[in-house]
Each structure stands twice: as structure tokens, then as C-alpha cells.
Automatic annotation (TrEMBL):
Name used for this protein in its record: Uncharacterized protein
Length: 87
């Protein structure tokens, strides 16, 4: 079973605390939140980049390009919802 973004963020936060020699009780939620937000921001930026690339490289078939680009961009609402729910 794949891990959720939150689980990945918590695992990464634990690794960072171990590297820095910081206690696990030292702001664990805030560190995991910051990592999770960074992951989501990166995913949104990559999604935009992919949608733009699809649109740019499929101009000869504009209808197909628009369809694929719209599908890729639809992911943004899910990512934004996840990011907003963490605030």
C-alpha cells in the first residue's frame, strides 16, 4: 500500500530531526506540516509544467491537447483542497 503525503512528510520530518539531532518532541507537527506543504507546492508546480508542455506539444490537435491539459489541471483542485485543509 502506498503512503499518503502526510505519512511521507512525517517520515521525512523524523529523518531531518535525526540528522539534526533534535528531539522528536520539538515541534513535530509543524515540521511535518512544512514538509507536506512543500511537497504539495512542488506537485502543483509540476502539474502546471506538465499541462503547459502537453498544450505546447499537441497544438496540431488542439481539441485533444485541451482535453488532456484540462484533465491534468483538474488535479490542482484536489491538491489545493488538501493544502487548504491543513491550515
Amino acid at each position: 500500500m502506498s503512503k499518503s503525503l502526510r505519512e511521507r512528510a512525517e517520515d521525512t520530518a523524523k529523518e531531518v530531526r535525526e540528522i539534526l539531532g533534535v528531539s522528536e518532541d520539538d515541534h513535530p507537527t509543524e515540521v511535518a506540516d512544512a514538509i507536506e506543504h512543500a511537497i504539495i507546492r512542488a506537485l502543483i508546480e509540476e502539474r502546471d509544467r506538465c499541462a503547459d508542455m502537453i498544450h505546447d506539444h499537441m497544438e496540431e490537435d488542439a481539441q485533444k491537447a485541451k482535453y488532456v491539459s484540462d484533465k491534468v489541471r483538474a488535479v490542482k483542485s484536489v491538491l489545493i483542497t488538501n493544502l487548504s485543509s491543513m491550515r
